[in-house]
Design brief:
Layout lengths: L1 H7 L2 H7 L19 H7 L12 E3 L6 E3 L1 E4 L14 H13 L4 E3 L9 H9 L8 E6 L9 H15 L4 E9 L3 H10 L3 H10 L3 E8 L3 H9 L1 H4 L3 E5 L4 H8 L6 H11 L3 E4 L12 H10 L5 H10 L4 E7 L3 H11 L7 H17 L20 H14 L11 H15 L25 H16 L1 H5 L7
Parallel strand pairs: 3-4, 3-10, 4-5, 5-6, 6-7, 7-8, 8-9, 9-10
Antiparallel strand pairs: 1-2
Helix pairs in contact: 4-5, 11-16, 14-15, 17-18
Length: 473
């Protein structure tokens, strides 16, 4: 039966579901890239997380005890060397998470080529229904899904895939992108928000909220309607960089300080997403990593970000997309139990570390994969992640006069080919712009890909233009 279900939600079905043409035959990469060796070496030092020590927060409406660590089901593990998801490993990691106190699992019809809800449902259905809370969303990735009939079908299909008859936390997905016109078209003009309020009254939705990326006008508008809709929770991006510098990273973003404070004024719990800023706060430039290690040599770099995200009392749960068991164990160690940051530690992260990170100009990609799949097979996040990694490490081959240029040039090109197959690199982008509207960080993706393609061409032709550098490698 499981094989039949997988065939039913095929790549073609996913493309059709989200209004994406089927012109590509290239494979779609899913899940995270393998962690860097330095991170893996650090994970090898892990101790086993304790059982029965998870920190919980109380939902003020239902009085449910929600685990501070929430499992984001958007970066599921793949079978080695294949595109298929590793359901056996997903089950194993979910079992381990539940055994260690995790009870909040967040998914979406849009995650993992449309298979996240299916895989999540298989893993969770093996456990008693009252032992976990599941969150999913009314996603908004294509006009074809925005009619009332298609939206209701998406909502009911989520229950079917998750194998549940009610949803604990249901969200309007990523409101803010496209401003008020996009919000109204997706959730208001078709009557879907009122429909979901009725579903909550009927008990098929236990908590109703929304996740926010984009124009602040939409966020403020929905909070102004709190007396009418009585939002049970709101999902926001919160980490020690976004607290005060989200707008500096991207002019369309809003600082987390403002978002969190507005929720606190109304007594609305915050579900935290992007505690690692798309993984960037777990793979920092070495000079920043050294500062954190001097403070606590035993703690991982990522643990600082998780402690920061979990310290505010208004945070109901902190989501993490955990592809590997090592990620799960490290995060469990941060929250079993939480050791809240002191005011001095918070200031250290917000003022000193965050400012230095902002000074390193990266492409603000969070590796969320909302831009995927590209109809022409380009691995957009893979290309950006490789560039940012080299930028953070200080290994970008920028200076042709440097004695290290030849070595760094070769390292960048070989590393890119290992991370992203040649047929999925930036030179295959045709600038169709389909990806742009889906990016919650509002990155001008075609422009960034073009810049990287031009950089790569310069690196490839260096030997032709300026003489071979092979003897120096």
């Amino acid at each position: 039966m499981e094989d039949n279900r997988k065939k039913k939600i095929s790549r073609r079905d996913f493309l059709k579901m989200f209004g994406i043409g089927s012109v590509t035959t290239a494979a779609v990469a899913t899940g995270c890239k393998k962690p860097e060796q330095a991170a893996m070496d650090e994970y090898k030092q892990q101790v086993e997380p304790p059982v029965g020590k998870m920190t919980y927060r109380v939902n003020p409406k239902t009085k449910d005890k929600v685990s501070l660590l929430g499992y984001g089901m958007m970066r599921l593990p793949n079978i080695e060397g294949k595109e298929d998801f590793d359901q056996e490993m997903i089950n194993k990691q979910v079992d381990y998470a539940i055994a260690h106190g995790v009870n909040y699992f967040d998914t979406s019809p849009a995650y993992c080529r449309g298979l996240s809800e299916h895989c999540t449902g298989i893993a969770l259905h093996r456990h008693p229904r009252n032992s976990y809370f599941v969150a999913t969303k009314l996603s908004n990735f294509s006009p074809e899904t925005q009619t009332r009939a298609a939206s209701i079908e998406m909502y009911h299909n989520s229950m079917k895939e998750l194998q549940v008859d009610y949803i604990d936390y249901y969200l309007l997905h990523s409101i803010g992108g496209g401003g008020m016109p996009a919000f109204n078209a997706r959730y208001m003009d078709n009557g879907m928000l009122d429909y979901l309020v009725e579903e909550r009254a009927a008990g098929r939705i236990r908590n109703l909220g929304f996740s926010y990326h984009g124009e602040i006008e939409v966020f403020d508008h929905l909070l102004s309607l709190h007396d009418k809709y009585k939002w049970d929770f709101v999902q926001i991006e919160l980490n020690y960089v976004d607290w005060d510098f989200a707008n500096e990273i991207n002019s369309t973003n809003t600082d987390a300080r403002y978002l969190y404070d507005e929720l606190q004024k109304r007594g609305i719990p915050a579900v935290v997403m992007e505690p690692l800023l798309g993984g960037r706060l777990s793979s920092l430039p070495q000079f920043i990593t050294n500062e954190l290690k001097r403070r606590d040599p035993e703690k991982s770099v990522a643990s600082w970000a998780f402690r920061y995200a979990g310290t505010p009392e208004g945070a109901l749960t902190v989501l993490s997309g955990m592809t590997y068991m090592e990620h799960l164990k490290d995060n469990l160690l941060s929250y079993s139990p939480l050791q809240p940051l002191t005011p001095e530690e918070q200031d250290f992260l917000q003022d000193e570390i965050a400012r230095k990170i902002v000074g390193v100009e990266n492409i603000p990609c969070n590796d969320c994969k909302y831009c995927m799949p590209c109809p022409y097979g380009v691995d957009i996040p893979g290309i950006f992640v490789h560039y940012n990694k080299c930028k953070n490490e200080g290994t970008l081959p920028n200076d042709t006069e440097s004695k290290d240029y030849a070595r760094l040039r070769r390292r960048y090109l070989i590393g890119l080919d290992r991370a992203v197959p040649k047929e999925r690199q930036a030179d295959h982008c045709i600038r169709c712009g389909q990806c742009v509207e889906h990016c919650p960080q509002n990155i001008r993706i075609p422009r960034e890909l073009q810049k990287l393609d031009e950089m790569i061409e310069r690196l490839k032709t260096y030997g032709v233009d300026l003489g071979s550098d092979e003897k120096d490698e």
